[in-house]
TrEMBL record:
Source organism of this protein record: Streptomyces sanyensis
Secretion signal span: 1-23
This protein's UniProt keywords: Signal
Protein name: NHL repeat containing protein
PANTHER family: E3 UBIQUITIN-PROTEIN LIGASE NHLRC1-RELATED (PTHR24104), PROTEIN LIN-41 (PTHR24104:SF25)
Length: 672
C-alpha cells in the first residue's frame, strides 16, 4: 500500500505540472537594480513536487512589522523554481522560502483556502546565490531553530536571536542538498548520539502529510495543550518543538507511514527534542563548568581542565577561556589566554560593558604537579575581544578563595562566591583593585552560587549549611533562609517577578574547603536513581518558601539553575543525562493545568539526551536554545574527568536578552 501511495503521489505531481514554467538561470549574476535570482527545487524525499506555490519572505524584524513577501513563483514538473527579488536594504535581514502544495489536492486540508502542506527553508542573512532544496528536512530544521520566532507560519524576531537561529537551522539541514547538515551528521553528533535519528524521524512524520495521508492526525497530535491546531506542516514542526513532550508515542506512529529519511529512530523518544553537541575547535573544551552569553549571543565558556582526550592522562588546570559562535564554532582568535586563568570552575559572567569575568577555582586532575593552593585565589578579567585585563596572577584583592559562582548586576558590580572562604567578594563597578570581602563566618559555609534579584539584592547558596543568604545591594548580610527543602543547595537563579530558585543537590557536596573532586566522584558515581533530597526550592522576595520543595524524576543530582524569558525554570543535573523544565511563578506562561513547580518536561525523565553526560550549568541564549555543560564524564576518572562538549537543545526555551545581569529579560521580537 505504501509503494502504491508513493506512485500515486508521483502521478499527481506530474499531472499538476501542466502549465508550470521554469526559467533557466542567467549567464551572469544580475545587478541589484535588475534583481537577484534565487533558484531551487521542492521535493519530498526524491520525489519532485510540481505546481507548488513558492514564496520568498523577509522575516519580520521584531519591531512589530511582520514577514514580507519578496517574490513568488510556481515549481515546474521537476519541482524547480526561480524567484527574482530585490535584496533588502536592512542589515541582517533573514530570508526564508515556503512551498505550499496545491490547494485541494491533499487530504486533511487544514482550513478553507489554506494548503496543509507547507515546506520551508531558512536562507539566513540577506539570501543565498546558490540553489536550495525545500523538503521535510529543511522544514524540521526551520521549525525547531525558529520555534521561538514563529507565530502561525510567519517568522519574526529581533537581533541577534533571529539571525543566530537562522544559522542554527543550517546545523540541522543542508539547504543546498536537503540532506542532514554536516554538524548533525558527523562526530561528536552523527552516529554518536540519537539526535540525527530523531531529526530524520521528525521529517518522516511530516512526509506522511506531504503525501496526503496523515495531515489530520498530524495537526491533532502536534497541537500544543490549550492552543489552536497548526494549519500546515511548518507550523506543526514548530509546535512540536515548543511542546516536545506532548503525544510523543502517537507522533512516532506517524513516522512509519512514509519513512523516506534514514537512519531514523526505532522506538519513540521521551520527547521530541534535538540536542546538538558543540566542541569548538575540537581540542579546547575539557570540563566546561559554566557558560555566559554576550550581547551578540556568542558563548564564553570556563573550562576546568587542560584539554586531553584520554581520561587516563593527567590534565592540569585549564589556562584558556573558550568562546563559541552561536552555531558552535570557535570565534576567530579564540580561545583566549592569560590574565591568571587556571582551572576555572562554575564562575563566568559578563558585566554591562561586555567585559568577561572568570573565577579561577584551581581544578586539576590527580597527578598534576602544580600547587593549586597558589592558583585558586583570583579572578580573571577580559575585554569583549578576549584581551586579558587582569595581571598574570589574576585579580586577588577581596580575599578570593576557591571562587565558584559569579554574577554581575546591572550597575556593573561583580559578585563572587568564595566556596573555600565562607564569603562573597564584591567588586564595585568592576574595579578589581577596590574589591571587598564580605565574610559570613559559620552562617554560610561553602557558598557556591550567586544571583541578583529585581531589587538589586544578591542571593548566595550555602552548600555546607543547607541555606541561602540574602545580601543588600551594598553587600550587607540581611538574613539567611532555611527550610522549604533546601538541602545541599548548588545553583541559584532569579526570575522577573522577584523570586529566586534553588537547586538542591541532596548528596552533592561542593568540592571546596576540604572536599576534593575525588570525594565528590565517590559520593555520586554509584547513584543510579533520583536521590530523595533532589529537589528545587522557590524563595519569594520576602524570604519565605513553600512548605515543600518541588520534586520530579527530571531532577537527578540537580546542579545548575536558569530562568528563561517566560519565567519557566531550567535545572541541569550531575546525573541521569537529563535537563528538567518546571513551571515558574508566572503560571500564565505554562501549559494549561500546571501550577508553580509542576514539571513541564516529562515528569518521569525530564528532557533526556544520550549526548549529555554529567552537567553542571544550564543557560538560555537569545534564540531560545538551552545550553548545558558536559562537565564530567559519566565515569569520572580523576586524572582527567572532564567532559569534552557543550550540549545545546535547539529552540526549546523562551529567549533571554544577554548578557544576563540578574533577572532574565525578554529580547524584542520573540513570540511571547
Amino acid at each position: 500500500m505504501r509503494h502504491r501511495n508513493i506512485l500515486l503521489l508521483s502521478a499527481v505531481v506530474s499531472a499538476l505540472s501542466v502549465g508550470a514554467s521554469y526559467a533557466q538561470p542567467p549567464t551572469a549574476p544580475p545587478d541589484r537594480h535588475r534583481g537577484i535570482a534565487q533558484q531551487g527545487v521542492v521535493r519530498s524525499g526524491d520525489t519532485p513536487l510540481s505546481a507548488a506555490r513558492v514564496t520568498l519572505y523577509q522575516a519580520g524584524d521584531g519591531t512589530g512589522r511582520g514577514a514580507r513577501a519578496l517574490a513568488r513563483a510556481r515549481s515546474d514538473a521537476q519541482g524547480r523554481f526561480r524567484l527574482v527579488y530585490q535584496r533588502p536594504a536592512e542589515p541582517g535581514a533573514v530570508l526564508y522560502v515556503t512551498a505550499d502544495a496545491p490547494r485541494g489536492k491533499q487530504r486533511g486540508r487544514a482550513g478553507h483556502g489554506v494548503a496543509p502542506v507547507r515546506l520551508t527553508t531558512v536562507l539566513g542573512h540577506a539570501g543565498r546565490r546558490a540553489p536550495i532544496v525545500v523538503n521535510e528536512r529543511t522544514t524540521v530544521a526551520a521549525g525547531f531553530a525558529m520555534a521561538q520566532f514563529t507565530k502561525g507560519s510567519e517568522i519574526s524576531g529581533g537581533h541577534p536571536g533571529l539571525q543566530n537561529a537562522a544559522g542554527v537551522s543550517h546545523n540541522l539541514a543542508d539547504i543546498a542538498t536537503g540532506d542532514v547538515a554536516r554538524v548533525l551528521a558527523t562526530a561528536p553528533n552523527g552516529r554518536e548520539t540519537s539526535a540525527m535519528r530523531a531529526f530524520n524521524s521528525l521529517a518522516n512524520i511530516l512526509s506522511g502529510c506531504t503525501a496526503g495521508e496523515t495531515c489530520g492526525d498530524l495537526f491533532a497530535l502536534a497541537t500544543p495543550p490549550g492552543q489552536s491546531p497548526p494549519r500546515d506542516t511548518f507550523q506543526a514542526a514548530a509546535d512540536i518543538a515548543r511542546a516536545p513532550g506532548h503525544d510523543v508515542d502517537a507522533l512516532f506512529g506517524l513516522a512509519s507511514v512514509r519513512p523516506l529519511y534514514t537512519p531514523a529512530l526505532r522506538e519513540a523518544p521521551d520527547a521530541w527534542t534535538i540536542a546538538l553537541r558543540y566542541v569548538g575547535n575540537g581540542h579546547e573544551i575539557d570540563g566546561p563548568g559554566n557558560v555566559a552569553f554576550d550581547a551578540e549571543g556568542t558563548a564564553w565558556i570556563a573550562n576546568n581542565y587542560a584539554f586531553g582526550s584520554d581520561p587516563l592522562t593527567t590534565a592540569c588546570g585549564s589556562r584558556i577561556l573558550s568562546r563559541l559562535t552561536p552555531t558552535g564554532e570557535a570565534v576567530r582568535g579564540a580561545p583566549y589566554r592569560g590574565g591568571g586563568l587556571y582551572g576555572a570552575g562554575y564562575g563566568v559572567t559578563l558585566d554591562p560593558r561586555g567585559r568577561v569575568w572568570v573565577g579561577n577555582f584551581g581544578f586539576q586532575g590527580t597527578g598534576c604537579p602544580n600547587d593549586a593552593s597558589r592558583l585558586y585565589r583570583s579572578v580573571s578579567e577580559f575585554t569583549p575581544n578576549g584581551l586579558a585585563l587582569s595581571p598574570p596572577w589574576g585579580w586577588r584583592r577581596g580575599d578570593i578563595l576557591q571562587p565558584q559562582g559569579m554574577m554581575s548586576d546591572r550597575r556593573g558590580n561583580v559578585w563572587v562566591a568564595n566556596c573555600g572562604g565562607r564569603s562573597v567578594t564584591r567588586i564595585p563597578q568592576g574595579r578589581a583593585r577596590d574589591a571587598r570581602n564580605i565574610s559570613f563566618g559559620d552562617r554560610i559555609v561553602k557558598p557556591f552560587d550567586v544571583t541578583v534579584d529585581t531589587s538589586g539584592r544578591t542571593w548566595v547558596t550555602g552548600n555546607g549549611t543547607d541555606n541561602v543568604g540574602l545580601l543588600s545591594p551594598s553587600g550587607e548580610l540581611l538574613r539567611t533562609v532555611e527550610g522549604g527543602g533546601i538541602k545541599r543547595p548548588m545553583g541559584i537563579a532569579s526570575d522577573s517577578l522577584g523570586n529566586v530558585w534553588v537547586s538542591n543537590g541532596g548528596v552533592v557536596v561542593a568540592p571546596c574547603e576540604g572536599t576534593t573532586p575525588a570525594m565528590l566522584a565517590e559520593a555520586v558515581v554509584d547513584i543510579v536513581t533520583r536521590h530523595v533530597d533532589a529537589s528545587v526550592t522557590m524563595i519569594r522576595p520576602d524570604g519565605s518558601t513553600p512548605p515543600k520543595p518541588f520534586v520530579n524524576d527530571g531532577l537527578f543530582l540537580p546542579w545548575g539553575m536558569a530562568v528563561d524569558g517566560d519565567d519557566t525554570v531550567w535545572v541541569s543535573n550531575f546525573g541521569g543525562r537529563r535537563v528538567a523544565n518546571l513551571c515558574g511563578a508566572r503560571v500564565s506562561a505554562c501549559p494549561p493545568g500546571l501550577t508553580t513547580g509542576d514539571p513541564i518536561s516529562p515528569a518521569d525523565t525530564g528532557y533526556t539526551s544520550d549526548g549529555l553526560e554529567r552537567n553542571t550549568a544550564v543557560q538560555i541564549d537569545p534564540s531560545g536554545n538551552v545550553w548545558l555543560t558536559n562537565n564530567w564524564r559519566n565515569v569520572p576518572v580523576q586524572t582527567n574527568p572532564g567532559g569534552l562538549e557543550m550540549v545545546v537543545f535547539v529552540g526549546l526555551a523562551a529567549p533571554v536578552r544577554t548578557p544576563l545581569l540578574g533577572p532574565p529579560r525578554q529580547p524584542g521580537g520573540h513570540r511571547s
